[in-house]
Structure formats: structure tokens, C-alpha cells
Please model this.
Amino acid sequence: MTNSEVIELLKVLSDENRLKIIKLLAKHNICACNILKELKVTQPTLSHHMKVLSSIHLVTPIKKGNKVVYQLEKSKLNKISLYMKEIIGGENMKKEEMCDKKCTCGCHEGKECICDDKCNCGPECTCGCNSNKEKCDESCSCGCNEGKECNCE
Model:
């Protein structure tokens, strides 16, 4: 994907109703009348959103009698997903380089860990928190703040 294609796609997806439509279509093809019921928007508003989504080939309208059924073009979403993974290097990131429950930064988001603190407050912990405490809290220097029994020494 080119940068301009990515920008165009992200602009289209930045609308809350369009994002809801994409989520509905990700499950199965759906007719416009059922999308209307789910979104609670007017028919002209839905028509506008579907035209925008169709214009970038993210959604394909399929005429069935007097109804229009819409189909999500998942390949387009796969392309943007690959583009984003390329930017953040998600494919190349090792599991231990990602923040997890052992990481004391508290984000637990699976992002690249920049805190360099893998403290798990286990028996070998040398984080220096007060070992006289019964439970880890916000004053505990290990940062776990889990309220569990403090095993730090």
C-alpha cells in the first residue's frame, strides 16, 4: 500500500458509524436494511457511508432483487494490518521484549518494553522494597502494587 492509500483508508475508518459498519460486515454479509436497524441512522446517511466505503473498495455492494447486500473486502484490511505491523515491527519483536504482567511500568499492553524492569517480586527479588510489609502497595519500590503478599527481600 502506498502512503496515500493508507491515509485515505484511515480517514474513512476514522468515522464511528463506518467503523461500526465494518465490524458488522466482518461477521457476515448484511443488507442495508439490517445495517440501518443496527446503526439507527437515516437511510440517506447510511447511503453516504456505504458510498464512501465502496469508493475505496473496502465494501462491495451486491444487488439481490430489490435489496443491496454488502460484503467486506477483508483483503484491504489485511493490507493495512500488514502495513502497520511493518511500521511497528510487531512480527520481529520477541515476546520477552514486550511489556507483560511482570513489567513494572504497569501498561501490560504487549508493546515494546522500555522500562527494563522485569521484577516479579519473587524470592530472588532485589528491587529493595520494604520486606517488612505483608502486602505490596504503592509505596513498595517493586512497583507491582498488586496487594499480594510481598516476597521482596
User: Anything to note?
Assistant: Helices lie at 3-13, 16-27, 32-39, 43-55, 74-88. Residues 94 and 117 are 16 Å apart (CA to CA). The two ends are 53 Å apart (CA to CA). Residues 116-120, 128-133 have pLDDT under 50 and may be disordered.
